[in-house]
């Protein structure tokens, strides 16, 4: 009988097999792009322009400055002399000017000497209020503004932007422009690591840390970017005497990590509106008994999903990625922590590192115990979605090589530059969309509705008990 099968039907069978196996996975976008790699913008570009005036404050950036969202860390640089570390600020509807005084640091990196880097934390701001703030003295003051988040609560809508691996190329500028012009209007950025790529230059030319901060000022002086450290923040150059990892980053980017009893520079958590955000460090010790492990084991049970329903984890290196470059680099971290992300119903894990875009299904791979052979990711409606958004546009270019055929757990992947937004509507629902740079500002190249895992589990179990 088998002999009777025509060659044609064998091909047909084969074709069916190929089609079903490839289409079990999600979508590998066939979007085609041109000029996929671009150089860093030259130092005389408009985006790097120095503000006018002697010792004028530059590189202004803000981030959340406390656990609840009533604090802001304002950071900036003065190039010529220390100047003042004072921030003058006032609410939009008030003419009472207040001030806070911070301090400055400097550092040397091989033969580079940093300018004066100021950090000033403003605390006890009113929620949901627009504030103006002013830096500098005499005729070189500069004014900016920010809006504090609404008071923490379960149904507070809030929109986060997602940007990663940004660098300072022409593509980086397109990504930032698209984020700024996105009608979804992100209110704060979750930055998934790898900021300036200064380490791509001879001796990690730290002038590129300065130029990067001038480039992004147009956004980050007005809304907080929540920082996480990537491998390009390590700046490890022991052969030139620079053996202290993260030296430029730690001097320039302060984060609110000083929770009582916690001394973990790159792991911290914040509440913002209806979200609880846990920032982890892919490049700090994370095995059993390490500070990061102890902190996280203490942190996860503390999250009160009635207060902050949305539990979001940010870490540079993805736990799931089906691109061949950096393949399985996050595996040791996954083995350590995925079980807890599943147990505590983390809604989504945002990462970068891989210079492309990918979104997984809700999956987990936690059943394996070294001898039971259960080592394949499986659909799990209560497990996180993993999103890789390392497509900011740095000078290393995009990654095209992928695991083929596309594994089932990968829902959508495409090597294009872009950014995403995560729009929380209320305690049960959020809307996520990824935007590629080649499209119009409002075009969504990938999108999905999120149903909050904690509230879903409650309604599922009450439905089951009926
Ligand atoms: C302030 O501006 C005046 C001219 O308006 C200029 O002569 C002076 O040098 C400036 N001072 C500083 C500190 O830049
Ligand atoms: C630092 O050293 C490099 C290489 O020797 C040199 O090109 C550069 O000009 C030096 N920079 C400074 C600020 O001395
Ligand atoms: C960067 O983007 C901004 C906003 O679109 C634009 O005004 C500026 O000219 C761009 N600069 C470069 C060097 O591409
Ligand atoms: C959790 O948050 C809710 C809402 O804010 C509050 O009523 C409740 O007391 C909190 N639970 C705990 C254990 O703190
Ligand atoms: C939450 O938001 C979604 C989307 O806007 C809406 O359909 C749903 O009714 C809202 N739920 C509640 C409890 O307000
Ligand atoms: Fe990276």
From TrEMBL:
Keywords: Glycoprotein, Hydrolase, Iron, Metal-binding, Signal, Zinc
Domain of life: Eukaryota
SUPFAM superfamilies cross-referenced by the UniProt entry: Metallo-dependent phosphatases, Purple acid phosphatase, N-terminal domain
Gene3D superfamilies, alphabetized: 3.60.21.10, Purple acid phosphatase-like, N-terminal
Catalysed transformations (reactions): a phosphate monoester + H2O = an alcohol + phosphate
Enzyme Commission number(s) of this protein: 3.1.3.2
InterPro entries linked to this entry: Calcineurin-like_PHP, FN3_dom, Metallo-depent_PP-like, MPP_PAP, PAPs-like, PAPs_C, PAPs_N, Purple_acid_Pase-like_N
Family: Belongs to the metallophosphoesterase superfamily. Purple acid phosphatase family.
This protein's name: Purple acid phosphatase
Organism (species): Tagetes patula (French marigold)
